[in-house]
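Hi team, as promised in this morning's meeting, here are the two structures we talked about. I've kept the exact order from the run log so nobody has to guess. The first one is mostly here for context; it's the second one we should focus on when we meet again. Sequence first, then the predicted structure tokens.
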Amino acid sequence: MKKQFKTPNKQLIRKFRLLTILLCAYNLFNASVALAQDGVAGIQEATNKVVSYFDTGCDLMYAIGAVVGLIGAVKVFNKWNAGEPDTNKVAAAWFGSCIFLVVVATVLKSFFGI
């Protein structure tokens, strides 16, 4: 013999859904109030974090420039040994990109006063 379960009342289901939505909204409101902070303090904290990461970013830029510079130097050397006619153009582009990376890091440091 099978057991038969009563189907829940539709009105009870609606009340449960409404209660669930209200509780979710209440939790979201309380979480947003708890995480709110002063705008000036938030901007100051963001500024401090950016300044603390700036030297690391410059070092990373120098490291990437060194790797790209070595690859470019090998490329120019191979073109030079092969006697290709556009070696001067490739060498100028390689040298210019290395100078650009160094100048950008220096200009950014002086621009932001770091």
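And here is the second protein, the one for discussion:
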Amino acid sequence: MPLSERDKAILDFERRWWTLPGPKEASIRCHLAMSATRYYRLLGGLVDSSEAMGYDPLVVRRLRRVRDHRRRVRFEGPSAGMPPVR
């Protein structure tokens, strides 16, 4: 199923949100007219979408890395993912 215009807008926003003034949550509401909770729920679904990967692979890969790191830390502890000390 192809990405909707809303899905593309979410990925576009995630690519550039830090260039916008103010807190991210306020920018989400202003630019996308949705709550931050709804935004993150939709974004989380897009991360696993092959269509999203085709549309913006850099953003999707970055989000997957962040998600995987957070999962690893949650299950293995704060030192998870850290390089071994020699």
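Starting points for discussion:
Residues 50 and 57 are 9 Å apart (CA to CA).
Residues 5-76 form one domain.
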